[in-house]
Write a structure and sequence with these properties.
Layout (H helix, E strand, L loop, with lengths): L14 E5 L11 E8 L2 H14 L3 E4 L5 E2 L5 E8 L4 E7 L2 E7 L4 H10 L2 E2 L14 H4 L2 E2 L2 E2 L4 E7 L6 E5 H4 L7 H4 L7 E11 L8 H6 L6 H14 L17 E4 L5 E3 H13 L11 E4 L2 E4 L1 H7 L7 E2 L2 E3 L6 E4 L5 H19 L8 E2 L5
Parallel strand pairs: 2-5, 3-5, 4-21
Antiparallel strand pairs: 1-2, 6-7, 7-13, 8-13, 9-10, 11-12, 11-13, 14-20, 15-17, 16-17, 18-19, 19-20
Length: 368
């Protein structure tokens, strides 16, 4: 049951006790005390103003593919941004700046860019969710990050309720991170539009070994996009319409953990442990990549070598049968069970390798 209704008059489009599980890819969790969908900045600001008068905390929900809803639901007002569409804002030679509304499907934007022969996001095809979430998480895959193409982020300041504009430097992008993500939730700018700089006629990015092996030497942007979707489908890392009809892994938030970036000494200790325990015969069999003065490890590799095989299951929650990074809800479960299973993985990997895995999807109403 929702908490007591505040005295501020409830807007006609704000719904009470709205179930949130159907609006996420995990299909878990409780209801929002209050819920509204907004398609334009004016309505967003007006509903934020109402929430402030009513004393409600505000939670932003995008496509629901990187979100975990607590079993007890989310207090206050949950706002889902649904405004979509894009337009070319500036052209300078082969550089084309495209402004995209936050509620636009990310994959729809990638498809449109590829159809227009605009390079820069083709390796990010098939990723579920909305455009507005991409700068917060600095979404990336197959050698590309959105930070490479983002020129500016337009948003609403939740404190002043004024429209603001952030350039890429202010966004403070890092691996699956940004200044937006690091900001406390009550002060995090609410992204309403993102401007990307793409290259007309540019070549597809070919930086990821798995993708490079799968592509022909002269692969087009469209062929690169199709190949990325196929690779993701083989790992059950896509949703309908790309997912196979009988895929048992679709109720997922994608990669549940980020690849840890650790001190070189820790990475070498992992390699030494793997050699001593017979997990590998050669140090090069431990996947790792230099990240400045540190080293990135493969979270999926760590999870499997810590004893969690693909398809490992505890009740209604388990690992994907195709990808050890994804946690899957098989139906009838709870968020508590999901988080408990994830914590078991974290603790086991920490004990086995001395590496702490960080959760990637956001726990609504709690994180930050």
């Amino acid at each position: 049951m929702s908490r007591a209704t505040p005295r501020a008059m409830l807007p006609a489009d704000v719904r009470r006790d709205e179930p949130l599980a159907p609006r996420t890819t995990l299909r878990l969790g409780g209801a929002a005390d209050h819920f509204v969908e907004v398609a334009d900045d004016a309505t967003l600001i007006d509903r934020l103003r109402w929430a402030k008068r009513a004393g409600h905390a505000v939670t932003i929900l995008g496509g629901g593919s990187n979100a975990i809803v607590p079993d007890e639901g989310v207090r206050g007002l949950v706002v889902r941004l649904v405004g979509s569409g894009s337009h070319v804002e500036r052209v300078d030679g082969d550089r084309v700046e495209v402004a995209v509304r936050a509620g636009t499907s990310w994959d729809d934007f990638v498809r449109h860019a590829v159809e227009e022969e605009l390079a820069g996001v083709e390796c990010l095809a098939g990723i579920p969710g909305a455009v507005g979430a991409t700068p917060i998480q600095n979404v990336g895959a197959y050698g590309q990050d959105v930070a490479e193409t983002i020129v500016k982020v337009r948003a609403v300041d939740p404190t002043t309720l004024e429209a603001i504009e952030l350039d890429a430097a202010t966004c403070g992008f890092a691996y699956r991170d940004s200044a937006l993500k690091r900001a406390p939730l009550d002060r995090r700018p609410i992204v309403t539009e993102v401007v990307f700089a793409l290259r007309r006629g540019g070549a597809a990015a070919r930086r990821y070994a798995e993708l490079e092996r799968a592509l022909a030497a002269d692969a087009s942007l469209a062929q690169t996009r199709d190949t990325v979707i196929a690779l993701r489908r083989n790992k059950s890392m896509v949703l309908p319409p790309y997912a196979a009809p009988d895929d048992p892994n679709v109720r997922s938030a994608g990669s549940f953990f980020t690849n840890p970036i650790v001190a070189r000494a820790i990475a070498e200790a992992v390699v030494g442990s793997a050699l001593r325990e017979g997990l590998v015969r050669d140090p090069n069999e431990v996947p790792r990549w230099p990240e400045g003065e540190r080293t990135k490890l493969a979270a999926g590799w760590l999870i499997e070598r810590a004893g969690f095989a693909r398809g490992h299951r505890v009740g209604t929650i388990g690992l994907s049968t195709a990808h050890a990074l994804a946690l899957v809800h098989h139906g009838g479960g709870t968020t508590h069970e999901l988080l408990a299973f994830a914590q078991t993985i974290v603790e086991t990997v920490q004990t086995r390798f001395g590496v702490t895995l960080e959760r990637e999807p956001r726990l609504l109403g709690v994180d930050g």
